[in-house]
Amino acid sequence: MKVTLSDFIISFFDLLEAEIRAFKNGSEEFLDKEYKNFQNAVFKSSVSILGIVISGILFLIAVFMLTGGLFLFLHKFFTVMATCFILSIIFFVFGICLLWVLKRNNE
């Protein structure tokens, strides 16, 4: 069988076209998979951030309610000024202890 230069060129370009088509299909599947992974990561991180924000708001509400409850409890026994002073001392000591624990954990 006689193979001419034109047959070789035609078969070369057919092979090149097939390889380009295979690469295009493979890259589309790869990009689709990566896009879906990116979508899942963004969704999961958005849900996590939303959970952190809601938890922070609930924590602040709990702290304010705890403070109000302590104020009302201590107000039965002390004056308003003494109650505010006692609460400020309690929260100051609590803050110092928290900073000490954080400093100790970061060393």
List the helices and strands and how they pair.
Blueprint (H helix, E strand, L loop, with lengths): L4 H71 L4 H27 L1
Helix pairs in contact: 1-2
Q: Any overview of this molecule?
A:
The protein is mainly α. The chain has 2 domains: 1-66; 77-107. It is 92% helix and 0% strand. It contains 2 helices and no strands.
Low-confidence stretches: none
User: What does the largest sheet look like?
Assistant: none
- What is the arithmetic mean of pLDDT? 85
Indicate the radius of gyration in whole angstroms: 34 Å
Structural class: mainly alpha
* General shape: rod-shaped
How would you briefly describe this protein structure?
By secondary structure, the chain is mostly helical. It contains 2 helices and no strands.
Keywords summarizing the entry:
107 residues; mainly alpha; 2 domains; 0% strand
